[in-house]
Amino acid sequence: MSSSISSPAAAPALGWWTPETETSSPRDLPEALLHLNETVSVVAGANGPAAGVGGAISNAASAPSTASLPLLATLPPQRLEHLGDPRICALLDIRYPLIGGSMAKGISSEALVEALAQAGMLGFFGAAGLSPQRVEAAIDRLQATLGELPFGCNLIHSPNEPQLEADIVALYLRKGVRLVEASAFLDLTLPIVRYRLAGIHRAADGSIVTPNRVIAKVSREEVASKFLAPPPAKFVSALVESGELSSEQAELASQIPMAIAVTAEADSGGHTDNRPALALLPTICAVRDRLQSEYGYSKMPLVGLGGGIGTPLAAAAAFAMGAAYLVTGTVNQACVESGTSDVVRQMLVETRQADVTMAPAADMFEMGVDVQVLKRGTMFSMRASRLYELYRQYDSIETLPASEREKLEKTLFKAPLETIWSQTRAYFLQRDRSQVERAERDPKHRLALVFRWYLGQSPHWANDGDPARKVDYQIWCGPAMGAFNEWTRGSFLETVEERRVATVSLNLLLGAAYVLRRFQLQARGLDLRQLPLQPAPLGEAWLKELLS
């Protein structure tokens, strides 16, 4: 018996394709797959599968004419609007199922949010780590420039600064911000429940109306469960007792989920649990299905995917697994509209997949929570990890060994630690006085606040492009950046100046549609060895023509 593996049989013809004229010839198949609004007739050309343009299809037993070619497959149109779950586009009033996730410190800038909205997508302003005054200024600009076009703002969990979280929610309610992306939540809090339920009422047709909507980014099923369940009764009762909800509104609260959608956040930049998307998305979908069955919501929450979306193949895989929408982040940071510096953008352009690592998070430093950052070209991750080791080992600034303290003051802080504490104290007297009061009672908390000064300043040095602090840049980055750079190598998107967020986002979606069409042909058994797995990035003129 032969041990060789035979080649699969060629796909049998489905019929015949006859061109409109004897001299017409099939179109190049890769190009045809990008014309998403057209039906593609795949025929057996002289050099392999090709695309028939126009013409007639017949299932006759023999060729209708000498110009007829065997028909191998027929692909229906594949509009970008129909990728994912079409309900997300209707729900958010957007054209395409792609969301630009919020990147802290205004990296998801007003300009980035505006560009996505104007291109038919949605962007979240990166409000985390900014003062309420700075966030309010961003809201004012976006409401003025976008008019009726949708946008959202970030609401980050702030366990060490609960008053700041409450103040941001109060700001969103006052300014009429109707959509937030909740990120880094370990548990639900009263402020986010207050936001979700403000103004809840029953419409004339009996449906429940919730003016404020939450999309939650989660990487753990236990956190997903909290956002996919109704608001906790203890918080609803507290809002009733404070007079912010009526008893009728409290009854309605038990019939809605906390979030209209949940983003399964896989191996992303910033706060992440480094979860594999292939395991995380199905798990979160299963949690959603279980809770939908339990509570019977009139509008089932949707599940999207973020983290690792840096190529058309990744985007197509997400949609193939059932993602209702995509969320991008890391690749947007390298775009010209992001709120970072040119020097950081150039560093990101040079990033490869192995150039990322984990480092302590400034906002959850004492809890040992990490964020994913760029390792190449910066010493931040090593220095931040050393600060956390010292925090775990010592109870105050005064108990630090003299040699360690001298090294910190010389290399990281570039000033005496007492000077850093003085600056930190002044900052928190304005932002959250309770932090100062606690630090003056607890020397270890004072040590944490001083160490957090370095972690908190490092993103600002990066965003400002401070040349004196380049080795200390904290740049949130996931491995998707390396995948994106490899995909765009040799194309116009290889350079910083050409990376515009709408162009990048539409190329990811268009490429995903191409990949999904290609997979349909592959499932027919066609020999596609000459057909690229994913298309090269297309310029704005091509995108406009193909998507018109």
What do these coordinates show?
With 548 residues, the chain is α/β, with parallel strands linked by helices. The protein is built from 21 helices and 18 strands. It has helices spanning 29-34, 86-92, 110-118, 132-146, 162-175, 190-197, 221-228, 233-241, 247-253, 277-295, 312-320, 330-333, 342-349, 380-393, 402-412, 417-431, 433-441, 443-464, 480-488, 501-523, 540-547, and strands spanning 15-18, 40-45, 48-52, 56-58, 69-75, 98-100, 122-125, 152-156, 179-183, 201-202, 208-209, 213-218, 261-265, 270-271, 302-306, 326-328, 356-360, 370-374. The strands form four sheets. It has an eight-stranded parallel β-barrel with strand order 6-7-8-9-12-13-15-16, surrounded by seven helices. Strand 2 and strand 3 (48-52) form a beta hairpin. Helix 5 (162-175) packs parallel to helix 6 (190-197), helix 11 (312-320) packs across helix 20 (501-523) and helix 16 crosses helix 17 (433-441). It is globular, with a radius of gyration of 27 Å. The termini are far apart.
Task: Explain the layout of strands and helices.
Layout: E1 15-18, H1 29-34, E2 40-45, E3 48-52, E4 56-58, E5 69-75, H2 86-92, E6 98-100, H3 110-118, E7 122-125, H4 132-146, E8 152-156, H5 162-175, E9 179-183, H6 190-197, E10 201-202, E11 208-209, E12 213-218, H7 221-228, H8 233-241, H9 247-253, E13 261-265, E14 270-271, H10 277-295, E15 302-306, H11 312-320, E16 326-328, H12 330-333, H13 342-349, E17 356-360, E18 370-374, H14 380-393, H15 402-412, H16 417-431, H17 433-441, H18 443-464, H19 480-488, H20 501-523, H21 540-547
Parallel strand pairs: 6-7, 6-16, 7-8, 8-9, 9-12, 12-13, 13-15, 15-16
Antiparallel strand pairs: 1-4, 1-5, 2-3, 2-5, 10-11, 14-18, 17-18
Helix pairs in contact: 3-4, 4-5, 5-6, 7-10, 11-20, 14-18, 16-17, 16-18, 17-18
